[in-house]
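Structure (tokenized):
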């Protein structure tokens, strides 16, 4: 195949650039007209063109097209927040951006905020749609613990009432994702508390669906819950956090177990200190950072209390 001469290559490159610019001008005009038309004729339901149509209009520059949609989405979300109105159309923006560019990470948290913070009257549909987008985010970013935490946290603190069966489904979803978040290495220890909190909510919600009173063993903390809180207590470096966990453990009836664990620590310390009794206790503790090992007192991941 003969090589093209430099003038022809430059002409083709310029033509491609012009076509690309025209494509984006066309795409911008299309979105503007679509927005204007929909808002006038269908004010309650503004819908973007399909992502496939936008991809064609932008000559398949999908990431750049997602940027253009993102600018419109930010403007829409800001106007809804300032007017304290529902931002239900934010879901159309989010799905379109993700279809064009799944790795557009800011859209996942933006959509969650738009659906849950724009109006004081959050509905179950707002929560459901917010969580759908966050679940899409976890498929692309499986180590993003904040997405999983947000799914669980979205089920807390709302004033609407749910039928027992739907409330149980909400609590099961919240527990599933809170536990998922707690198992991601980068997640903070507090995620264990959120997971165990929802674990107990699931038990109560299931008893309500089954129309029965909670049995005595169901009112008590599960072994897994106590193990979570116990490990978090010993791992906590902040005194306020330790005091909070201590109160929680006593509320769950695990105070005696915690005292036994602390005594085990004390015995391990005294036993090992005898080997270097020439050192003051505080100096010895600093000289042997591996002294308080979880496996020494049974705090392994497979602990069963």
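Design, position by position:
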């Amino acid at each position: 195949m003969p090589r093209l001469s430099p003038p022809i290559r430059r002409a083709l490159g310029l033509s491609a650039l012009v076509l690309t610019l025209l494509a984006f001008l066309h795409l911008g005009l299309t979105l503007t007209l679509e927005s204007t038309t929909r808002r006038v004729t269908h004010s309650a339901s503004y819908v973007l063109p399909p992502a496939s149509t936008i991809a064609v209009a932008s000559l398949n520059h999908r990431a750049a097209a997602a940027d253009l949609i993102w600018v419109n989405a930010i403007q829409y979300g800001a106007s809804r927040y300032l007017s304290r109105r529902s931002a239900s159309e934010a879901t159309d923006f989010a799905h379109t951006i993700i279809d064009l560019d799944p790795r557009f990470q800011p859209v996942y948290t933006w959509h969650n905020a738009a659906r849950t913070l724009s109006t004081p009257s959050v509905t179950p549909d707002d929560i459901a749609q917010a969580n759908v987008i966050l679940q899409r985010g976890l498929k692309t970013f499986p180590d993003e613990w904040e997405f999983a935490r947000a799914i669980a946290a979205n089920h807390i603190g709302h004033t609407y009432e749910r039928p027992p069966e739907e409330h149980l489904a909400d609590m099961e979803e919240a527990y599933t994702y809170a536990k998922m978040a707690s198992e991601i290495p980068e997640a903070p220890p507090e995620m264990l508390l959120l997971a165990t909190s929802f674990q107990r909510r699931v038990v109560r919600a299931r008893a309500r669906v089954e129309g029965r009173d909670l049995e005595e063993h169901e009112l008590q903390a599960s072994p897994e819950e106590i193990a979570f809180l116990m490990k978090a207590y010993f791992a906590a470096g902040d005194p306020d956090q330790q005091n909070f966990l201590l109160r929680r453990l006593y509320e769950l009836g695990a105070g005696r177990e915690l005292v036994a664990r602390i005594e085990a620590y004390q015995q391990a310390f005294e036993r090992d200190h005898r080997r270097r009794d020439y050192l003051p206790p505080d100096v010895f503790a600093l000289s042997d950072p591996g002294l308080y090992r979880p496996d020494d007192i049974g705090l392994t991941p497979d602990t069963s209390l």
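Reviewer-requested clarification: The chain has 14 helices and no strands. The CA atoms of residues 62 and 100 lie 5 Å apart.
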